[in-house]
Design goal:
Pfam family, one: CzcB_C
Structural class: alpha+beta
GO cellular component, one term: membrane
GO molecular function: transition metal ion binding; transmembrane transporter activity
Shape: elongated
InterPro entries: Beta-barrel_RND_2, BSH_CusB, CzcB_C, MFP_Cation_Efflux, RND_pump_MFP
Keywords: Transport
CATH superfamily of the largest domain: RNA polymerase II/Efflux pump adaptor protein, barrel-sandwich hybrid domain
Strand content: 35-45%
């Protein structure tokens, strides 16, 4: 027989012996059987076979299948969540500017979208027949009050005072300034138009009127917003939602500024889920003092969440079907026992261990080397504690 034929024969004999013993196992303990091989010449013990550490030339199944172990331990873990988001205007920062009387736009100072407006700056001038009537009514009320100011009749004086105050307040409600009213009292010249001044600083985000447009009371003519603070709406996937808390610090990279790291804070977690994408919106507030950031920008988001010391195992050491979770505990050299465990969170390649095994327990690091998981959990471990004969499956 050639060396090649002898090598194949020895290998098949050892593997067949191991599989044959496994098929006869009926107890809960899974012994890893040692197969004895006669010492062969040095030429046969090549790199194709695991090198035996036993001086007597014993080759174990652990060596054949390259079984390694790991230890249940407490590890200081940090969960990193990576997602994406888009900048938007803060809803609390958007202002609609409305006119409180009907009229027609005669002059438009805020004449294009994107223009920056300062508080007190004129926005538009409107001609309004209602405004003319209100001013004429105010002038009459003021003149009547002046005529009877020295009269002895208290009732007439009180009536005149009430008429004056009502006409004065009406002009104030229509955003005519006190200074404009004082000028009206002195000049007695009725203004046919009214200029509306901006009550806020900010950019014109939307413009609803043009020169000559009709203005209706209560309808917005402009929409203004600041950019000092922006909202970044992050999309957090369903499995990461339990880790997100208000107040967490966030690192952000914008495609427009790839070399710069921005920082923000989780401000709010929305209570609605995007059913299609399985995500929840998370609001992050980002200061924007230099106005470099613009609503609509896309970003990559990193959230590092310290979890403290957790008792964990690598995911390769756990058979997890969703309903049952099993690890193989080493009882002695080459002997493993399946144990049901309760898992907590999955964190970047590790399972948190809540119960079943304790700190320092040695388990098989590649649990699937012992069995076909589907056959195992449908067979011997269909119900926790119920024992059925288990066969070691060998796939060709």
């Amino acid at each position: 027989m050639s060396w090649k034929g002898l090598f194949i024969a020895v290998t098949l004999f050892v593997f067949g012996l191991a599989v044959g013993v496994f098929t006869q196992i009926g107890s809960q303990i899974i012994p890893v059987i040692q197969s004895f091989v006669e010492t062969q010449p040095a030429e046969i013990q090549s790199a194709k076979l695991p090198e035996s550490k036993n001086k007597k030339g014993i080759l174990t199944v652990e060596q054949l299948f390259n079984i390694d172990t790991t230890v249940v331990s407490h590890v200081d873990l940090t969960k990193r969540i990576e997602t994406y988001g888009e900048l938007v205007h803060p809803e609390t920062d958007v202002r609609d500017i409305t006119f409180k009387i009907n009229g027609y736009v005669e002059k438009l100072y805020a004449d294009y979208t994107g223009k920056y407006i300062k508080k007190g700056q004129p926005l538009l001038t409107v001609y309004s027949p209602e405004l003319v009537s209100a001013q004429e009514e105010f002038i009459r009320a003021y003149e009547y009050l002046s005529q009877i100011e020295n009269a002895d009749n208290g009732i007439l004086k009180k009536t005149a005072q009430d008429m004056y105050e009502a006409a004065y307040k009406r002009l104030l409600y229509w955003d005519i300034t006190p200074q404009q009213i004082e000028n009206l009292k002195k000049s007695k010249k009725v203004m046919k138009t009214l200029t509306l001044y901006s009550p806020y600083d900010g950019w014109i985000m939307e413009k609803f009127v043009n020169l000559g447009s009709k203005v209706e009371a209560g309808k917005p003519v402009l929409r203004i917003a600041k950019h000092e603070n922006l909202w970044l709406i992050a999309k957090v996937y369903e499995q990461d939602i339990p880790f997100i808390k208000k107040g967490q610090k966030v690192m952000i990279h914008f495609e427009s500024y790839p070399d710069q790291i921005y920082h923000g804070v989780v401000d709010y977690i929305y209570p609605m889920m995007d059913i299609r994408n399985r995500t929840v919106d998370v609001r992050i507030v980002i200061p924007n003092p230099e106005y470099k950031l613009i609503p609509g920008m896309y970003s990559n988001i990193h959230i590092d969440i310290p979890l403290g010391k957790l008792m964990v195992l690598p995911e390769t050491a756990v058979i997890n079907t969703g309903k049952k979770q099993v690890v193989f505990v080493q009882k002695e050299k080459g002997v493993f026992e399946p144990v049901f465990v309760k898992l907590g969170r999955y964190i970047d390649g590790y399972y948190e261990i809540l119960s079943g095994v304790g700190h320092g327990t040695v388990v098989a690091n590649s649990a699937l080397f012992l069995l076909d998981a589907d056959a195992q959990l449908k067979g011997k471990y269909q119900k926790e504690g119920e024992q059925k004969p288990m066969k070691m499956m060998h796939h060709h």
